[in-house]
Design goal:
Methylamine Dehydrogenase, Chain H, four-stranded antiparallel beta sheet
Length: about 500
């Protein structure tokens, strides 16, 4: 809430602080793309000059609420090079790119605070949309940033993504309140907390206070809602994560705002949890809930919070922060039956009283988990092999795919390279499911070991390549008689073997 820190993680087990930028203004959500860092600013104390003195006047030209843009060509000395004012500020934001418009970046700004006076920023209206259709409520901001001239960034659209398509009323989704006896009180849908964009599939998922929504972002300047869902157990739709293939989405519910104990044995297992949906023809179909299974104490603030995919080939796995509930890793490959497969928990900050703390976020990046612990600092964690996750699966997930940059709200499709460890990860999954014979597993392991040796030596080998192709055909043929996830894994293994053979 006071700025941002930059760390050098080139030696991840020895992270080093590079810089601390003091620039108050709220939560300070950040994204990095190229040499630019984007920062959200929402609080009324924010100033254009990043000053500490705040702004006392109710209207002031010195106040800043919106999106800051920093040049991070030298991360040791970030320089603010742009600032875009918005009516509600920005609690979070999302970077969206357009393959047909390489000269510009687009930012979806999500403001969750009050609307500033029109006297301070022209065009900001706090009235109900039924009284004033130009209300700043029930909108998101679309900001265009010219890559070569970030100082000229500006708002180019304020789409009404919650509107009723039949009537045109912009307040068209959940009105707020409970859903009947025994249900949760859910916030009104007049804002998005997080929007997660997945440009490769042309969609974004919005966790929007009272609803989860899907947006078509094929035209980044004009996102349009294509689907929405509601849940009688959700208090506040907080964040969203797609599966790598874009056929599932996980929404989180921040019941209690993150400062309260919501993971006790007495708390409903479906409240303050994740809701998992399959995406079928751009519609969301509910499948299940997931909540970290270990009961927490009254002294531990705990609820579903920020996380990311762990890109294990052949599986849908997510790492997620639960404040003082710790970090949970769960498998949602079967969207109707998610299972925790790993965890890390420091325990309460204080055993006698609730002191705000715990993991605000947990993100996977190039083989490790990076956790931001509110009270106890910045943690780097390593996954350990177990009965639920093999050494090969962890190694395959650690292979670089997305160009060395990670932004939680801008998912990039992970494409696994043609490496033997990827095929071995698929093999481990088939063996875990007991759908491949020991003899065939041994035969494949031996062929992949030979392939790895040849690749290490940088030499071709038609014999090994031929063996891999023969095995690929066998697995592909067998896949024709199978169904579901098992069939998918047989086919993915076959494709992987063919790709490795091509390298030999």
């Amino acid at each position: 809430y006071h700025g941002f820190n930059a760390y050098d993680i080139s030696l991840p087990r020895e992270p080093k602080l590079l810089s601390s930028v003091v620039c108050p203004g709220g939560q300070g959500d950040v994204s990095v793309i190229g040499n630019l860092l984007i920062m959200s600013v929402e609080q009324t104390r924010g100033r254009l000059d990043c000053g500490l003195q705040g702004v006392a006047e109710p209207e002031s030209e010195e106040r800043f609420r919106g999106i800051r843009i920093f040049d991070i060509s030298d991360f040791r000395m970030p320089i603010q090079v742009g600032a875009v004012q918005t009516c509600r500020g920005s609690h979070t934001h999302t970077v969206v790119t357009d393959p047909d418009d390489a000269g510009n970046l687009y930012i979806y700004g999500s403001g969750t605070s009050s609307v500033r006076p029109g006297e301070e920023l022209d065009g900001c209206y706090d009235e109900s949309p039924f009284e004033n259709p130009e209300s700043a409520l029930f909108r998101i901001d679309v900001i265009q940033i010219p890559v070569n001239d970030p100082a000229s960034a500006r708002v180019v659209n304020r789409p009404t993504v919650f509107s009723d398509p039949a009537s045109g009323v912009i307040a068209g989704l959940w009105e707020g309140g409970d859903h009947g006896p025994g249900t949760q009180t859910t916030r009104e849908t007049n804002q998005c907390h997080d929007i997660t964009a997945y440009p490769e599939v042309g969609l974004a998922a919005g966790a929007c206070s009272g609803n989860g929504i899907l947006l078509d972002i094929s035209d980044p300047v004009n996102p349009t809602r294509v689907a929405e869902v509601i849940d009688p157990g959700f208090a506040y739709w907080h964040s969203a994560t797609f599966s790598n293939d874009g056929r599932k989405v996980v929404f989180t519910d921040e019941w209690g705002g993150g400062s309260r104990p919501r993971c006790r044995a007495s708390d409903p297992i479906t409240w303050g949890a994740d809701a998992i949906y399959d995406i079928v023809d751009n519609e969301m179909q509910f499948r299940s809930y997931f909540k970290m299974p270990a009961p927490q104490t009254d002294q531990e603030n705990c609820v579903a919070h920020n996380g990311s995919l762990i890109p294990v080939p052949g599986r849908d796995i997510m790492v997620q922060a639960w404040y003082q509930g710790g970090i949970s890793v769960f498998d949602f490959s079967d969207s109707s039956n998610p299972q925790e497969i790993a965890f890390f928990d420091r325990g309460p900050v204080d055993a006698e009283e609730l002191i705000l703390g715990g993991y605000w976020s947990a993100y996977w990046f190039e083989g490790l988990i990076y956790g931001t612990e509110i009270a106890r600092g910045f943690d780097v964690l390593e996954l350990m092999p177990s009965d639920y996750l093999s050494e090969n699966e962890i190694a395959a997930a650690s292979l670089r795919s997305a160009g060395g940059t990670f932004n939680a709200q801008r998912q990039q499709q992970h494409i696994w390279p043609a490496e033997p460890v990827v095929a071995l990860a698929y093999l481990d999954q088939l063996q875990r499911s007991e759908v491949v014979s020991p003899d065939r597993a041994t035969d494949l392991s031996s062929a992949l070991s030979d392939a790895q040796d040849r690749l290490n030596e940088a030499v071709s080998d038609e014999r090994v390549a031929g063996k891999l192709r023969s095995l690929a055909v066998a697995f592909d043929t067998e896949a024709e008689s199978l169904r579901g996830r098992t069939r998918d894994r047989f086919e993915m293994l076959s494709d992987s073997l063919e790709a490795i053979a091509d390298r030999l």
